[in-house]
Structures are given as C-alpha cells and as structure tokens.
Amino acid sequence: MNKTHIIHYSSNTHVISDNNFEEAFFHAQLKYSIRHFAFSKDISQEMIAEAMQKSLQICRLAGINSKHHFKQIFVFDINARTLYTDWLMSKKGFNLMMMQIPLQNENLARWLWQLANL
User: Fold this and answer.
1) Is 4 helix (H, G, I), strand (E, B) or coil?
2) For residue 110, what pLDDT is reported?
3) What is the DSSP string of 10-64?
4) Residue 28 and residue 25: Cα distance in Å, rounded?
5) pLDDT, tens digit, for every residue of 1-16?
6) 55 contacts 48 by C-beta, under 8 angstroms
7) pLDDT by residue (tens digit) across 35-79?
8) d(CA 76, CA 67)
9) Angle between helices 91-99 and 45-62 (to 10 degrees)
C-alpha cells in the first residue's frame, strides 16, 4: 500500500526568489553613472555630490526606494592605483539628479528643457 506524504512548502522560499528577481530587474535599469555628466565641463564634482544628496533626499521624502534608482559602486583605477566612488543610476534617477544641478549656461538650460519634454 502506497502512502502519500504531504509536504509543506514555506512561502519564504518564494519570497526570496521574488526579491532576487526584483533586485535583478531594478539593477538592469541602472544604465547611467556619474561619468555621463562629463558632457559639460561646467559641472564640478561638488555640484554633482550636492545634486546626489538632494536626489536621495527627494526619494526619501517622496517615499521612493532610492535603491531602485541609485546604487553606489566602487571603481579601482589600475593606472592611477586609486579607488573612487561612482553611482549607477536609472533614467529617472539621472534625470532627477540633472534637475538638481544649478544652471551654469545656455547649453545646460536647453538640455534641461529637452529633459522636461521626455
């Protein structure tokens, strides 16, 4: 006579799998980095750092998970033998950060106007 066994599967296993999928999905959206601000020589590192802090604060105040749009990474430059911090950003994160940079010239103003039309 065959006996049937009932096996209880915990839902926690599936939650972990869902979290991994969600994390992979949001990581795939991080296509921009600080180096994308190099198009303008008028944007200083201090301006970028301030824009990053403001952007993270906006996410926090708006109840948005900033980890979905900003991820801090560390990059080792083998030639200079230095370790520096960079940020990966989603399109929304990059646009939000761009809006936080003070206007310096007409080119940046035009670029922001185009950004507003997206």
Assistant:
1) coil
2) 79
3) PHHHHHHHHHHHHHHHHHHT--EEGGGGGG-TT--HHHHHHHHHHHHHHHHHHT-
4) 5
5) 556 555 555 455 444 5
6) no
7) 887 766 778 889 889 999 999 999 999 999 999 999 999 988 888
8) 22
9) 110
Residue 90's pLDDT band, with cuts at 50, 70 and 90, is very high
Nearest to 56 by CA among 97, 111, 20, 103: 97
The residues, any chain, with a CB within 8 Å of residue 109's CB and separated by 6 or more, are 103
CA separation, residue 17 to residues 4, 24, 27, 54, 66 (Å): 28, 11, 15, 33, 21
Q: CA torsion 54→86→70→53, rounded to 10°?
A: -10
